[in-house]
Amino acid sequence: MKEKYFVKVAKFEILKPANGMTWKEFRQLLMSVRYRVFRLANLCVSENFLQFHLWRKKEIDKIPTLKISELNRQLREMLLEEKKTSDAEQTRICKRGALPASIVDALSQYKIRALTAKSKWRDVIRGNASLPSFRNDAAIPICCHKPSHRRLEKTSNGNVELELMICMKPYPRIILKTEKISGNMKATLERLLANRGNSDTGYQQRFFEVVQDRQEGRRWYLHVTYKFPASLLRLNPQVIVGIDLGFSCPLYAAINNGLARLGWRHYESLGKRIRNLQNQVFARRRSMQSGGNASLTMDTARGGHGRKRILRPIEKLAGRVNNAYSTLNHQLSRSVIEFAKNHGAGVIQMENLEGLKEQLTGTFLGSRWRYHELQQFIEYKAKEVGIEVRKINPQYTSRRCSECGYINIKFDRAFRDANRKDGKTAKFICPKCKWEGDPDYNAARNLATLDIENLIRQQLINQGIPSEREETPVL
Fold this sequence. Notes:
Strand content: 15-25%
Number of domains: 2
Order of helices and strands: EHHHHHEEEEHEEEEEHHEHEHEEHH
């Protein structure tokens, strides 16, 4: 049976260039190389689309195989003609083309190949997709899987360094910022460094991407894409991840053997996209419906005709909304599975949401969100990697103190809404042990607790609280 592999990405900040290179020199080199990546990627995509278009019109018998290496040489001539570069600068980066083979191969293998299939072009022709394009701040891809390629290494002084194969020798050398990385990321880095031969039986480095932070332009990051066999993924059934649908963010994840979590800090950008999607969908739908109703009720000779044509944009919008919701649910579920895998969790516990649509109104995602789809995505992705998923009754999980187990019966929706400050939900404060924290994190910690339903049931008996499902939301 063929070994199954997982592919993941680790992100490290570039601390500084080494070997006497200044930040100004290094940044200028990166920007020059990045400009060529942007130009070559768009040139390759446009040429492939042109060939497909000619083949589709039967002006050529078959689609020729375009070699990106030839386009790379053409780009060099174009840059020189446009006076975008000098002979000296171009020769420093590559002798024959615009970019070295380590970048061209990575660009072709990991970026262009997925964009130039016939099925993709058919979607473009039919108007179901736009022509792929690359921005001028695109990432710089670099291959590192061959024996001749440079990979991460640890020096005698403890630094983690790398020679970037983005130009001719001597390659610029960088030092990564590794002092304050998380324990899991540190363990991943150690495994990558330990596999010196880059064997496929361990954590194997595949390719790098050098990326500039769009918000903080002075920071540059190295993304390391690596793979490892599934047999190395050690999952512990005693390690449990709890998933709570949050009020302040799309969802909150916590683990039962530490303080690691997924919360607002991780989902801030995704949360903004969700809010924008919801606002645009509601506004657009109201506009279409009001326009359609007005057209259908006009007192004209053609009143009532063309109903399907008038309502067709609403149906088209529904299809786009479905795709957008599914994409966001895939991103949310993927982050949960990655979090569980990174911490070796063998179990995911999440709320059983059947029959709770009205009670979901106040959550971040709202009652209109496709929760069933989100949970389905989590379940099938967890099954693929061998993680068990358990559904938990959410009753009192947000009112129980995850530190001491006491149930704060007053901490209901009305209390949380009444005590919001500056748009932020009220903190959970335990009346008994005085522990306080984010209410979504508290609920996620409870959901990550082994045998949580029995613990809550026993605590209700101890405090004399009825266990029936309440009318007020308890999420």
